[in-house]
Design a protein that fits this description.
312 residues; 22 strands; four-stranded mixed beta sheet; alpha+beta; five-stranded mixed beta sheet
Length: 312
């Protein structure tokens, strides 16, 4: 009996020794792991300092770019949340056109089913500031209605289009109004012909070609008085300037830029075709929804004035 108790006591002591040794090993391993993590943190800290020393000002620029992109993502999330789109709502008989600006996809839902789908392009999100006014080229989100349908639409670009194109080419802009004259070679305003004793001296400095407005046309007038209407739908360049033709003139109207069909949803925004088919699927427009000609033709045929358009 005593021998058995002795054996049990010995085994118990041995077990306690083994457990204690195991705990000590775990403690040592934990201490070693902590030490290794500490060394890793020190190495990372040294690497961060080296990067900061190498990049200097560029590091701050990179951070600003990252913050800007993060802000754009947050704005997109906010737009999606504010749209509160519930596809189950389209189970009603009403036909609904749905545009996802994040995917650049357009879908038509009817009776709870998608009956048409297409790749599109939406707003690029860039901004342009003119005379203290800032414009952001985003596709508006929310619920809209098709207000009108157009075949073979003509685009009449706002002034910002000419300003944007001029800045791309590092040029200036000059507005040509009725009654004005612009030197076709320099883009400088031309004064009225001088009269009086010194008129012959002034006349010798007259430009060889000037641009004027005649009726609804921008014409180029040569020194001999002959006139040539400028082609419509093309940028007019005079020296280092882009000429902004007056509203209502033929040169202010750009044909075929919007494809063959347009569905207007208000405030100048629309769903329309495009000649920039290679950019479909990307966020590149100034706010409108662009589709290929075959897709806008199909959408035009099935869409009705009053149809709901949901953009998110």
């Amino acid at each position: 009996m005593s021998l058995s108790i002795y054996r049990l006591g010995f085994l118990g002591a041995w077990a306690l020794f083994v457990i204690a040794a195991g705990l000590a090993s775990l403690a040592a391993a934990g201490e070693w792991e902590n030490s290794r993590d500490s060394e890793r943190l020190k190495r990372l800290d040294r690497i961060d300092r080296m990067i900061a020393e190498k990049l200097g000002a560029k590091l701050e620029e990179l951070r600003e770019i990252s913050d800007e992109k993060g802000g754009h993502v947050e704005k997109l999330r906010s737009d999606v949340a504010s749209a509160t789109l519930d596809l189950d709502e389209t189970k009603e008989p009403e036909q609904t056109i749905i545009v996802s600006t994040a995917e650049n996809r357009l879908r038509v839902r009817r009776g709870g089913h998608t009956i048409f789908e297409a790749v599109c392009s939406t707003g690029k999100g860039t901004s342009l500031e003119i005379a203290g006014r800032k414009m952001v080229f985003d596709t508006p989100t929310g619920r809209f209605r098709i207000q009108s349908k157009e075949e073979n639409p003509v685009w009449v670009p706002p002034d910002w289009h000419f300003v944007e194109e001029a800045r791309k080419k590092n040029l200036e802009v000059v507005h040509l109004n009725p009654g004005d004259a612009i030197d076709a070679a320099t883009g400088e305003p031309v004064s009225a012909p001088a009269s009086g004793v010194w008129s012959f001296l002034k006349a010798s400095k007259s430009p060889a070609r000037v641009l004027k407005v005649k009726g609804t046309e921008v014409v180029e007038v040569s020194a001999d008085g002959s006139e040539r209407p400028l082609p419509p739908g093309e940028l007019i360049r005079a020296g280092k300037t882009i000429v902004v033709p007056p509203p209502g003139s033929s040169q202010r109207k750009f044909d075929k830029v919007l494809g063959h069909f347009r569905l207007n949803i208000g405030n100048g925004y629309a769903l329309h075709g495009t000649t920039a088919t290679r950019e479909l699927g990307r966020s590149v427009s100034h706010g409108c929804v662009r589709l290929s000609d075959p897709d806008i033709e199909k959408l035009f045929a099935m869409a009705k004035v009053g149809d709901q358009v949901v953009i998110y």
